[in-house]
Specification:
heterodimer; A: alpha/beta; 6-stranded mixed β-sheet; 10 strands; 30% helix; 29% strand; globular; B: 248 residues; mainly alpha; binds adenosine-5'-triphosphate; binds magnesium ion
Chain lengths: 220, 248
């Protein structure tokens, strides 16, 4: 159903400067309709442009050419800061902000002068102990950081999720817990994953990316 | 000092030139240019000041301060190459620190509003602002480059560019002010500042020289702070575009 898509990308090109000054085409005329229901998984080889697409949808970057619509509206015509509040992105490599785990969890709401009522509960939701709240966030392990980063984004109560390999450095048990948490939220999400088992479990739609183009829609 | 002893000071330059050639530091050319420039600039300024102090002209005083501001701006803005319209931002910051410090000194009648005082103290205030402006621009650019990930996490959470780069700005401002704060802590113990040395050599009592030096040190610190904060706040938006994307 056209018009009902969460995101509609039409002939999107993105070029990035290389060290030597020439341009590398990262996305090459990509067209993609992401439905508004359930979880859409993006799969594809390393370097095919999956993370790049998520950055575009969060408006951290704009395409060199082509259109992106969010719920039927031209993305560029919307206030980027509003879009980012609605469309939360969890980056592939989690970056902790200075300060404690609590500071990190509260960051999103603090921007808008609000406070987070129960930061400890957010840690429990991602299978971490609330004892961790006053720990220095940069001292956490990779998997812990990844979960704090997810909780940090979820705590802002977004409407749409962009998840970039959020369970990549987790053991099977915490990975499954994070998966269940996301499923329980029942939010539309775009989830980049290399784990085909996971994709089969969570995805309503799957697209395969190859060299900056959508190769095919895969049966979920 | 007699003209003869002034000429003998060239010996110092010869010493450096000798070391440079001996160690193949390749500094002779720059050294020669620097030495000649220093002498010419100072002698010209000496005569100009002599004239300005004698005629006590307001216009000449303002013109001299303006020249100082412009030269300081040119110099500091070099550290911000790659940032669009950085010259104007540096200019505003240096003018702000000069106006704030000089305004306060004149308003509180700490110094009399004569060219002798205004020009000499402005020179130091503007010089300190220039150094701090350069440090800030350097630091701000390197911090923004190394902390991109952090800034983008803030942006992705819906922060405005100012919020997103707030921590980065804070550490850049802090770093740019460390030399000024250190100078406050060690003055008199490590080094006798130029102005005090000059006054003492010219025959003033060390007590008198110290009073002025305290005034100078405080005003330099104030000027550094005003310049650093003003320039930091002004140049932060240059790293982002209108859509709150990090572009530099
Ligand atoms: N900031 C950047 N500057 C220059 N090139 C970049 C930048 N970010 C990504 N690229 C290039 O864009 C291409 C796509 O990168 P992207 O991160 O989107 O891949 P990916 O599909 O997410 O891969 P992976 O599965 O390894 O995470 C790569 O060739 C990469 O080198
Ligand atoms: Mg990626």
């Amino acid at each position: 159903m056209p018009g009902n898509e969460l995101f509609q990308l039409t002939d999107v090109w993105l070029e990035r400067p290389r060290e030597d000054g020439t341009m590398q085409p990262v996305l090459r005329g990509l067209s993609l309709a992401i439905p508004g229901d359930g979880i859409t998984c993006l799969i594809g080889p390393s370097g095919s442009g999956k993370s790049t697409i998520l950055r575009l949808l969060n408006r951290l970057d704009d395409p060199t050419r082509g259109q992106i619509a969010f719920r039927g509206q031209e993305l560029r015509s919307l206030d980027p800061m509003r879009v980012r509040r609605q469309v939360a992105m969890v980056l592939q490599t989690p970056v902790m902000l200075p300060g404690t785990v609590r500071d990190n969890l509260e960051a999103g709401l603090r921007i808008h002068g609000q406070s987070l009522s129960d930061p400890g509960a957010w840690l429990e939701r991602v299978e971490l102990s609330p004892d961790m709240l006053n720990k220095k966030a940069r001292d956490l392990s990779g998997g812990e950081k990844q979960r704090v980063a997810l909780a940090r984004s979820l705590a802002t109560q977004p409407e749409v999720l962009l998840l970039d390999e959020v369970t990549a450095s987790l053991d099977a048990a915490s990975g499954a817990a994070v998966e269940q948490l996301v499923l329980n939220l029942k939010l539309p999400a775009i989830w980049v994953s290399h784990n085909m088992e996971q994709v089969r479990r969570v995805a309503a739609h799957v697209f395969r990316l190859e060299a900056g183009r959508i190769q095919e829609e895969v049966r979920a | 000092m007699t003209p003869m002893s002034l000429i003998f000071t060239v010996a110092f330059v010869v010493v450096v030139a000798f070391i440079s050639m001996w160690q193949k530091l390749d500094l002779e050319r720059d050294l020669l240019i620097g030495s000649v420039r220093a002498a010419v600039q100072l002698i010209v300024v000496g005569y100009v000041l002599f004239w300005v102090f004698k005629v006590e002209s307001w216009l000449a005083m303002i013109a001299m301060v303006a020249v100082m501001v412009i030269v300081a701006t040119q110099n500091a803005a070099k550290r911000g190459r790659g940032l669009p319209s950085i010259h104007w931002h540096v200019l505003v910051a240096i003018v702000a620190s000069e106006v704030a410090t000089m305004g306060l000194m004149l308003a509180l009648r700490i110094i009399p509003p004569t060219p002798r005082y205004v020009i000499s103290i402005s020179g130091m205030v503007i010089g300190s602002a220039m150094v701090v402006a350069g440090l800030l621009l350097n630091r701000l650019q390197s911090e923004m480059a190394s902390r991109r990930g952090e800034v983008e996490v803030w942006l992705a959470l819906g922060a405005s560019p100012r919020q997103a780069a707030g921590d980065v700005l804070k550490s850049a401002v802090k770093a740019s002010m460390i030399p000024s704060v250190d100078a406050l802590k060690t003055v008199g113990l490590v080094q006798l500042p130029g102005m005090m040395t000059g006054q003492i050599l010219a025959g003033a009592s060390p007590i008198q020289a110290v009073h002025y030096q305290i005034l100078i040190m405080y005003s330099l610190a104030a000027s550094a702070a005003v310049c650093s904060i003003t320039l930091g706040r002004l140049s932060l938006p240059l790293f982002f575009n209108r859509d709150a994307q990090l572009v530099r």
